[in-house]
Prior knowledge:
Layout: H1 3-21, E1 27-31, E2 47-51, E3 56-62, H2 68-80, E4 83-90, E5 100-102, H3 107-112, E6 118-124, E7 127-137, E8 142-150, E9 157-163, E10 170-176, H4 216-224, H5 232-246, H6 255-275
Parallel strand pairs: 3-4, 4-6
Antiparallel strand pairs: 1-2, 2-3, 5-8, 6-7, 7-8, 9-10
Helix pairs in contact: 4-6, 5-6
Amino acid sequence: xxxxxxxxxxxxxxxxxxxxxxxxxxxxxxxxxxxxxxxxxxxxxxxxxxxxxxxxxxxxxxxxxxxxxxxxxxxxxxxxxxxxxxxxxxxxxxxxxxxxxxxxxxxxxxxxxxxxxxxxxxxxxxxxxxxxxxxxxxxxxxxxxxxxxxxxxxxxxxxxxxxxxxxxxxxxxxxxxxxxxxxxxxxxxxxxxxxxxxxxxxxxxxxxxxxxxxxxxxxxxxxxxxxxxxxxxxxxxxxxxxxxxxxxxxxxxxxxxxxxxxxxxxxxxxxxxxxxxxx
Length: 279
């Protein structure tokens, strides 16, 4: 597929994905801006999803080789602002099913940032579609891609995950479309607890339980980019700095997005003040 075709596919995927996301009970709205208007891909995503519970998720559609260092900057910036991140890769950038590839390819960083699976977008019967891709080791230095069925965008999860892949190592806020939810789920929950691996003879292993999702207070501090131990003045200074950047009167963002971000910052700041009895 040539460059023009890839851009058309990406645009079609944005519209298709937004139509599916806005049908979810947890999603309040889903917006995107033209790629030409994205001045800084580290700070600005292809799509922004806002849930009724106040959580925000940035979705990045990757249509070119992207270095892990840049992926890390993206999740680092988003996590610092209390935002979850979800990457979806153009299938044309990935290897064929069963093809052995070196275990240091850039897309394995994306794989690690989605709890060891990856989403790929492509054309299927003339329509955009998503597929889950898993990379499994075939020897000490190679992995192979295994493609699953098309993904049904029926759920959106927001969670913290301790990524151990060296190039993107860290404790990040992430998101995915997985659906292993409790029977009475409201449609937006953190991932189900991971099961520990089976015990092997003469070998003991232990998988620590996943960390719980951040509380509203933790998310408020993260949104302002300060620690839980920050002083009143530090919190105030952080709020003023960020509020000035996104205020609708001065921000380069679309007005509705700037207003939404400014509102979230203000609500986070007020919640921190009330929680600490600073007012």
